[in-house]
Design brief:
- The structure holds two protein chains of two kinds.
- Chain A has helices at about 65-70, 105-120, 135-145, 160-165, 180-195, and strands spanning about 5-15, 20-25, 35-40, 45-50, 55-60, 75-85, 95-100, 120-130, 145-150, 155-160, 175-180, 200-205, 235, 250, 255-259.
- By secondary structure, chain A is α/β, with parallel strands linked by helices.
- In chain A, the strands form three sheets. In chain A, strands 10-9-8-7-11-12-13 form a seven-stranded mixed beta sheet, with helices on both faces.
- In chain A, α2 runs parallel beside α3.
- Chain B has helices spanning about 25-30, 75-90, 100-110, 135, 140-155, 170-180, 215-230, 245-255, 270-285, 295-300; strands at about 1-5, 5-10, 15, 40, 55-60, 65, 95, 120-125, 160, 185, 190, 210, 235-240, 255-260.
- Chain B starts with a strand and ends with a helix.
- In chain B, α6 (about 170-180) links the parallel β9 (about 160) and β10.
- Chain B is α/β, with parallel strands linked by helices.
- Helices cover about 35% and strands about 20% of the residues of chain B.
- Chain B has one domain (about 1-300): TIM Barrel (Alpha-Beta Barrel).
- The chains are: A alpha/beta, B alpha/beta.
- The interface of A and B includes residues 41 and 250 of A.
């Protein structure tokens, strides 16, 4: 598909560095966890998880996202997608645990909402650097119980999401959905492995995408060779056993960069 | 087993360069899960390159447009990927390389030799990287010099991948053959472009790029047909193959084997699908060997 034209309807400031852009296209069939390629015309195209059927939630981290932050309501950008494999929804009666760190909450907010609609009891562990950086706390709270952790202790448990997780009975959950910075996901992965609940878990990975449609191979992970853009970005915990998760990723040239 | 420039292939379908070839693990997956008969790596050059900005590939109704810009970690960075592919893929691994001069081609080839590639494929055909690829591949003297330079330092087969963006592809094919090439591979992508009419911006980050997929198949068939007539060395057919019928057609035009690229978009096991269907076709038609198909169209006058 060629990029669709998305006109910005509304911009919400979620935290000092994170904004949600609502646009005039609605991806009715999107699975939470799927991504779109966001084309900032004349500059670059970057992958972004959908935070709802008609929004992306963006952290200002580089050139393309900085340019996005200059856009106003009524401005437009290009969009391709939704692409990739999203999180697996629970079935009625199953218990769901959502583990979200920082802007990793973006694809998980629609997941928590969809899980609730399916009839699942949803608990969320929401982590961020400080109280100001917490994203979508209200959306998660509407879906169920929320446990908060902040690095500086300005809200909830002082520490990391793993400090909250280690006090939960993880075996009571049927689905565990994780998205956040890779260091956080690697810690969560080890904890779930220790507790022998890895098979219930899914993780959303972030890698450099070039084609975004599963052809070029720039985003393949070791040792499976799975493509993050097409076989992922959401992988089961079992698929990530003996993988590069938390160790390294490849840059645009394909060189390995330590995490 | 099927022999191609001395390489032993389980089937005549080969993963094309620049597709799922950035990492060793990915090449292994295409070989093991996809059952490709051989795999060609991403094109590797002398220094790390990030490639063009995105969008770098878009799907059209008739195929794909791409301008990756030869992203690669350079030969020292790629050696461990090549070693993984060699160790675990179970199929011949062909190293695709590029450079701006015969000396650079030689440097990259020598640099990858410790990884023991089964053959080299010289990329003199990428249509959208200034100073590389087609910039060399449209000049017969340079093609001959580059081929000879690599042949001089390696003792494995050397394939030369040709661009269709020239007035006479057989002239370039002849130059590769004169330089000592063991086979030519045809074709790389055709120059192409798409424009976003909402904004007027060209869609690809590089503004223009190369067309692959279904739309280019008739062009590839004609190039392979002409090269088969003009050259003594084998021709490997690539361009828009997404079904066994496409593969058979390409072989009848003169291809000794086929490469498959864009079609992995639909399915990774396209290689096993095509090779088993070719076998069924041979049986149905009573051909004793896949070799009976190669160049068949030339005899039908």
């Amino acid at each position: 598909m060629l990029p669709l034209n998305a006109t910005i309807l509304q911009i919400n400031e979620e935290s000092p560095l994170v904004r949600t852009f609502f646009f005039d296209l609605k991806f009715e069939t999107m699975e939470p966890g799927q991504f779109v390629m966001v084309w900032v015309r004349g500059l670059d195209e970057v992958p972004m998880g959908l935070s709802s059927k008609n929004s992306i939630t963006v952290q200002k981290v580089g050139e393309a996202t900085s340019k996005l932050f200059e856009l106003k309501e009524g401005d437009s950008f290009g969009l391709r997608g939704p692409f990739g494999r999203g999180f697996t929804l629970p079935i009625k009666g199953e218990k769901t645990l959502v583990v979200a760190g920082g802007v990793g909450a973006a694809p998980l907010a629609p997941y928590a909402e969809a899980a609730r609609i399916e009839g699942s009891e949803v608990h969320t562990v929401l982590g961020a650097r400080s109280a100001d950086d917490l994203i979508f706390e209200e959306r998660f709270a509407e879906a169920g119980e929320v446990y908060i952790s902040t690095d500086d202790g300005s809200k909830g448990t002082k520490g990391f999401v793993t400090d909250v997780l280690s006090n939960l009975d993880l075996s009571s959950y049927d689905k565990i959905a994780v998205c956040g910075p890779e260091i956080m996901m690697a810690s969560v992965f080890r904890l779930l492995e220790d507790r022998e609940v890895l098979e219930k878990s899914e993780f959303s990975l972030h890698r450099y995408f070039k084609c975004g449609i599963g052809v070029c191979g720039a985003c393949c992970i070791d040792k499976s060779g799975l493509r993050v853009c097409k076989d992922g970005p959401v992988f089961s915990g079992l698929q990530l056993l003996d993988s590069e998760l938390g160790k390294y990723m490849r840059d645009a040239s394909g060189q390995r960069v330590k995490i | 087993m099927y022999s191609l420039t001395g390489l032993k292939l389980k089937n005549p379908t080969i993963l094309a360069a620049g597709v799922l070839g950035t990492t060793g693990a990915s090449l292994c997956r295409v070989a093991r899960e996809g059952r490709a008969g051989a795999v060609v790596t991403k094109s590797i050059g002398p220094t790390p390159k990030a490639g063009h900005s995105n969008p770098s590939m878009v799907k059209l109704d008739c195929g794909f447009l791409n301008a990756m810009g030869l992203p690669n970690p350079s030969y020292p960075g790629f050696l461990q990927e090549l070693e993984t592919a060699k160790k675990d893929s179970g199929v011949p691994v062909i190293a695709s390389i590029f450079g701006g001069t015969p000396a650079e081609f030689k440097e990259v080839a020598e640099g990858l030799l410790p990884g023991k590639p089964d053959a080299f494929e010289l990329n003199v055909s990428c249509p959208h990287a200034e100073g590389y690829g087609a910039a060399i591949g449209s000049n017969p003297c340079l093609v001959e010099a580059v081929t000879a330079a690599v042949k001089d330092v390696v003792n494995v087969p050397v394939w030369v991948k040709l661009t269709p963006n020239v007035s006479d592809i057989t002239c370039i094919g002849n130059a590769a053959e004169s330089g000592g090439a063991d086979a030519v591979v045809a074709i790389n992508t055709l120059k192409g472009m798409a424009i976003d009419i909402e904004s007027g911006y060209p869609i690809l980050g590089n503004r223009s790029g190369g067309l692959s997929g279904k739309a280019v198949k008739p062009v590839a068939v004609k190039c392979v047909y002409d090269l088969y007539s003009a050259l003594e060395i084998p021709v490997i057919g690539v361009g828009g193959i997404s079904s066994w019928q496409d593969a058979v057609e390409m072989m009848m035009a003169g291809a000794s084997a086929v490469q498959i690229g864009s079609a992995v978009y639909d399915r990774l096991d396209i290689f096993s699908e095509i090779s088993t269907s070719i076998e069924a076709f041979l049986q149905r038609k009573g051909y004793s060997d896949v070799k009976k198909l190669i160049g068949l169209a030339h005899e039908m006058v």
